[in-house]
């Protein structure tokens, strides 16, 4: 399986939706909580080309984007191949 990192905050509905989709796909992911962590959020923003909102999702080190981007990738049929690439 691919290595998935997702930067989140606990109460973010988009974070919850993104994690739900990944869980439905059977994908394990590392959740990085940046709530109350300015340094963690800064590191996330640097990795995510300046994006400061959560979630920010990375698959095998590649920035996928946020929740809407993840769902769009899935709708286009691009998510499953990325998840299987690390297998």
Task: Tag the structure with descriptive keywords.
four-stranded mixed β-sheet, alpha+beta, 87 residues, 4 strands, 44% helix
3D structure, described in words:
This is Glutaredoxin. InterPro entries: GLR_AS, Glutaredoxin, Glutaredoxin_subgr, GRX_bact, Thioredoxin-like_sf. Has a glutathione-disulfide oxidoreductase activity in the presence of NADPH and glutathione reductase. Reduces low molecular weight disulfides and proteins. Keywords: Cytoplasm, Disulfide bond, Electron transport, Redox-active center, Transport. It is a single chain. This protein has about 90 residues and is α+β, with helices and mostly antiparallel strands. It is about 45% helix and about 20% strand. It contains four helices and four strands. It has a four-stranded mixed sheet with strand order 2-1-3-4, sandwiched between helices. Helix 1 links the parallel strand 1 and strand 2. The longest helix is centred in the first third of the chain and has 12 residues. The radius of gyration is 12 Å and the shape is globular. The chain starts with a strand and ends with a helix.
Briefly say what this structure is.
This protein is of the alpha+beta class and 87 residues long.
Mean pLDDT: 95
Strand order in space, largest sheet: 2-1-3-4
Query: Which structural class is indicated by helix and strand composition?
Result: alpha+beta
What's the helix-strand series? Answer: EHEHEEHH
What is the alpha-carbon Rg in Å? 12 Å
Rough shape? Answer: globular
Number of strands: 4
Number of discrete helical segments: 4
Q: Whole-Å distance between the termini?
A: 4 Å
